[in-house]
Prior knowledge:
Layout: E1 2-8, E2 12-15, E3 22-24, H1 51-60, E4 64-67, E5 91-93, E6 98-100, H2 106-116, E7 119-124, H3 131-142, H4 148-155, E8 166-169, H5 184-201, E9 206-210, H6 222-231, E10 237-244, H7 251-279, E11 286-294, H8 299-308, H9 324-339, E12 344-349, E13 359-361, E14 367-369, H10 373-382, E15 386-388, E16 391-393, E17 396-397, E18 405-406, E19 408-415, E20 420-427, E21 434-441, E22 448-454, E23 474-475, E24 479-482, E25 485-490, E26 494-501
Helix pairs in contact: 3-4, 3-5, 5-6, 6-7, 7-9, 9-10
Amino acid sequence: MKARVTAHSRYTISDIDNRLYGSFLEHLGRAVYTGVYEPGHPQADESGMRKDVIDLVRELDTPICRYPGGNFVSAYNWEDGIGPKEDRPTRLDLAWRTSESNQFGIHEYADWAEKANTEMMLALNLGSRDLDAARAFVEYVNHPGGTYWSDLRKKNGRADPWGVKVWCLGNEMDGPWQIGHKSAAEYGHLANETAKALKAFDKNLELIVCGSSHSNMPSYPQWEATVLEQTYDQVDYISLHMYFENYEKNTAEYLALPEKLDRYIGTVSGVIDYIKSKSRSRKDVKISFDEWNVWYHERENDAKRMAEWDWPHAPALLEDIYNFEDVLQVGCILNTFIRRSDVVRIACIAQLVNVIAPIMTEPGGDAWRQTIFYPFQFASAFGRGTALQLDVDCPTYNADVASGVSYLDISGVHDGDSGTLTFFAVNRNGEETLEVDLALERFGTAKSVEHTLIKHDDLEARNTKENQNNVVPVKGDGATLADGGLSLSLPPYSYSMIRVQL
């Protein structure tokens, strides 16, 4: 099968915000306890943070991390996680039917984030709580001193404010499953008043209002229109979430799902433009896609277990063990974000450790990379710069979610500082090699090309504690310099990263 791609130096989409490769850490399952935080572990530091996990997070180089939720945040009292640990209360978490010890709170998270070299992105409880709790939390975190909340932070051991810039105004408030669920009108009013108060404290804060939890919600996309109409001039982003499933075990249909993702982004982008025009506003609101990942492997089993258990602390929950097929899916999702980087400025893989995550740990034991670790790592490391508007001519197939799905899913990034071009390519065809003629127009002379390949004969192949390197990147031989560009040979069902030095 043959395809032709043209990349031109003058045909670009946008500069890519580095925060497109953000992550997410929620008080859910073992994400925090025995995930990032495990006092007494052989790899724990003096604060109880697992250094082996920190090393893997730094490998991912994720620039921002959303915390503490997620569904958890909608009934969370942030004050429970400050002060002496022996005085912190244990609470019932209604979202995941577990108990929360609050041994890990804002101080511990900030300590971990600094060590992991990631910026903090904090979510506010607008479910069970209100504007006053939100502004108190922001004051505690960001005010230098001389007030009740900032002086309490100092008393609790942190003299300087953390200066957190990005704040989420609640989580999935359109969802009936959410503690404190509200109608679009109710939420829009509360979010607007909260945003006004936070901007009065610091006009430079970046605020994220809740959009639809997914594009199948009955209220979508009217939810976005109603909420943005009330909040447009106070907020900077609207959040979207999407998870990807393959219950039917149909790879072609599964790998077509990013077409639905692209349509979701495009629709909400149109709603943003509509409200901007209706409001006669001059500002731009962008998208924070702050929850996304593959999630289905353990979902049904977890729902049954949760209904039966009696408020355990940090149980194993949502621990999907990813396979090689999921590598292809994550590669396609990241390509979609790169191609939509003009409007999607922040994105957060959900989640970071143990819970539907690229990193897994064993309590008291190893930490290792799941299969999806690698496409995320490559995008984070080499997907920074300017997104290219590629012209792609490739055979297509029809799927339930969309017609004309290209067998070649590809994105391109130009990093002018390093003089490199990087292409991320997924061959969605399970039977044929894709022979790609990739023309490079007005980039100058290509000096060298490097091909990194992830390929496995078994779509179900996984990385486990016992076999941690079953699915790993290898040096490929499918990319060569050709007259004015590249010649690529992409094996069936494969993920490739092609790096060109100019």
